[in-house]
## 1
Amino acid sequence: MSKIAVLGAGSWGTALSIVLADNGHDVRLWTHNEVQEENINETHKNEKYLEIMIPEKIIAYSNMKEAISNTDAIVLVVPTKAIREVCQELNSIMTHKPILIHASKGIEPNTFKRVSEMIAEEMNLYSYEDIVVLSGPSHAEEVAMRQPTTVTVASLTSDYAKHAQDLFFNESFRVYTSDDLLGIELGGALKNIIALGAGISDGLGYGDNAKAALITRGLAEITRLGTSLGANPLSFLGLPGVGDLIVTCTSVHSRNWRAGNLLGKGFKLNEVLEQMEMVVEGVRTAKAAYKFAEKEDVDMPITNGIYHVLFHDKQPKEVVEQLMNRTKKEELDDIYHMFKQE
Ligand SMILES: NC(=O)C1=CN([C@@H]2O[C@H](COP(=O)(O)OP(=O)(O)OC[C@H]3O[C@@H](n4cnc5c(N)ncnc54)[C@H](OP(=O)(O)O)[C@@H]3O)[C@@H](O)[C@H]2O)C=CC1
Ligand SMILES: O=C(CO)COP(=O)(O)O
């Protein structure tokens, strides 16, 4: 059994700690908050983030150096905006090199970096080839209740992906491997924008037809950007692509869907974010993807519309009208070419 530090004690860090503890590992859950550390160790609950009891063998730490000492694996699960800060602290205290797995979903605005790229930039001991990502349709609330869940772990180094698979795999948490780090990270990050759109659509009172259209055409534009950057188009048909789009666009557990729903009902972005209390990654990633698509000259009309609702006060109904009245197209035109690529 391994000693594993999970860095980030929000909903997803806590749920993944439960999976690892169920698998018999010695789990240290690091938080930047001393009060939360005490609460978790006294009550075996992480009340703000999950309702369920946490196995007693998960020990919370607020001292990162103690949390990572002698570990065989580190799982990084903080919001994307905190990745660099946490990695800088980690880098300053690392004296050994355990396997490094991250489970965050986002793209950095301005640099367009994915999480693995940010980690590799901040950590002296790790290169891009060393990083593993864990992604897929997996709401923390259901994982914590041991409900059947499937995810993918991806790394350019297949031994690391297999190692991560072994650490997490159990009877209710099925883990696949992939070598398409780029595609898996992009799928997980970009689906959050479409989930905001699905929430907006529901908030406006539109029905299942509109949501199915958003998911399908959202997948097309995610695949368009992903393949233009070199991802395998088939990755977007897998768990971290279409799988995560379905779960995030259709579930009340999704913070992105919930935030979108409030926007669709007429709330302003700042009012929505105040109410959420948890990270809504799609907002920051929408800014990144909008600019990234512009730079790469990739057509992403849904992302474009959501960006304008979020940051330029555009009315959601107006965006829907514009999307519906775009120039007539053949449905599979560009998709056909993407899948014909090697
Ligand atoms: N929740 C889910 O079902 C899933 C989430 N993810 C991804 O996992 C990542 C984390 O999300 P999730 O756990 O849900 O988010 P939450 O909002 O539930 O929790 C975020 C956690 O990160 C902590 N945090 C914030 N900033 C820092 C910082 N600078 N240093 C250290 N800790 C910090 C927060 O601390 P504090 O309490 O002090 O704010 C909190 O413990 C996101 O990228 C998300 O997209 C992926 C799959 C599923
Ligand atoms: O990524 C997720 C499920 O796979 C969680 O999505 P939300 O951040 O929208 O809750």
## 2
Amino acid sequence: MAIVGVLALQGSFNEHIAALRRLGVKGVEIRKPEQLRNVTSLIIPGGESTTMAKLAESYNLFPALREFVKMGRPVWGTCAGLILLSNNAVGQKSGGQGLIGGLNCTVHRNLFGSQLQSFEAELLVPEIASSEGGPETFCGVFIRAPAILEVGKEVQVLADYPAPSNGLLEENVEEERRVIVAVRQGNILATAFHPELTADTRWHSYFLKMADDTGEEALSSPVAIPVDISCVQQPRNDLPIYR
Ligand SMILES: NC(=O)CC[C@H](N)C(=O)O
């Protein structure tokens, strides 16, 4: 059976491991470069990308993480994980931060604003709904969320969302500008929101199938989990902080 690594430096790694467990799959915590040799795929959780990058630097994890992505192993970044996987990031803290890279896009680190601007919203994601069944929509939990501004040709856009009018985009966003919040580029999956904080395991199940497609042995018999979409669709001031 596949063993999924979950980068466990900071952030929502326990929630990802719990979601995998609900699908009958073992997720193991990764903190050292050599631990990546024991896993066939990797989830990089949400949290705080600058802090995570500093910790990755001090554990000398960057070369092994970059190699893992380059080898074509399935990697999924949620929120801060998406930022770390991007080739270019704007809106970084002064001094910048290390990135793993591999995903050909430009991400804005905090486009949706601060913790107080966190929210839930229903997202239309036809690719995942057609692969995993259930309703057409997904609950996106956005916490100090990033957004993708630009992608290369090889990147498949899975979901977008109206850009916020908070002045963080240079251009005028009056004419319904949308930004990208979920993508796939070959072995890389990235979401600006947190599926691990919902009861819906379809994103995890899709990621496990990606591991299957890339020749890794994944779920032996997928467990059907009833899909519960209870999306409050409003600002949330009770979401985890993960700093
Ligand atoms: N929920 C999150 O992962 C927030 C990410 C945050 N915007 C960052 O820079 O890392």
